[in-house]
Amino acid sequence: MKIGELARQTGLATSRIRFYEKSGLLHSVERLENGYRQYGPEALWMLEIIAGAQSAGFSLDEIRSLLPDAQAEWQHDALVASLERKVADIERMQARLADSKAKLLVAIDTVKRRPEDLPCEERPKWVLEQLRGSAAPTPPATRRKRERPTG
After folding, report:
1. Which of the residue ranges 5-14, 110-119, 126-135 has the most confident prediction, judged by mean pLDDT?
2. 135 pLDDT above the threshold of 70
């Protein structure tokens, strides 16, 4: 099939297919006398594997190392190990995202419950101190009372 038909069937742009070919990811390409590319049926499933692997977070180098070799043999042990590493990467990323989400929720709550009587210029400092876990700064009126000399 020609590149246009392959693009329609895979949903990939023709430029993306050419890129995969130039990157050494797609080998089942034959050049016709007129210079047109002719792709075999294996190009369709190979592109689906490449696109699926990219959407799962694999880099092109990782994908290249996982694809079947020239004899169309899969390196099963390497494939399984790479897939397991990717799952572990995803789990670490999920943990970081959950931590970030929790911190953002705390920040939202802190901003929402800031003291209304605190002057605007002191609110950012109060919020930051709350987020750091330290005690809230004493409102200015209270500080002035304490700063007055007793006597």
Report:
1. 5-14
2. no
User: What is residue 38's DSSP assignment?
Assistant: E
6 close to 47: Cβ distance less than 8 angstroms: yes
pTM of the model: 0.58
Which uninterrupted H or E stretch holds 39?
Answer: strand 37-39
Q: Three-class SS of residue 44?
A: helix
CB 85 within 8 A of CB 60: no
CATH 3.40.50.1820 fits 3-73, yes or no: no
Domain ranges of the chain: 3-73
From the CB of residue 107, how many other CB atoms can be counted at a distance below 10 Å?
Answer: 14
Q: Contact 3/37 with Cβ under 8 angstroms?
A: yes
For 4-59, give the DSSP string. HHHHHHHT--HHHHHHHHHTTS---EEE-TTS-EEE-THHHHHHHHHHHHHHTT--
Q: What is the pLDDT of residues 50-65, one digit of tens each?
A: 998 998 888 998 888 8
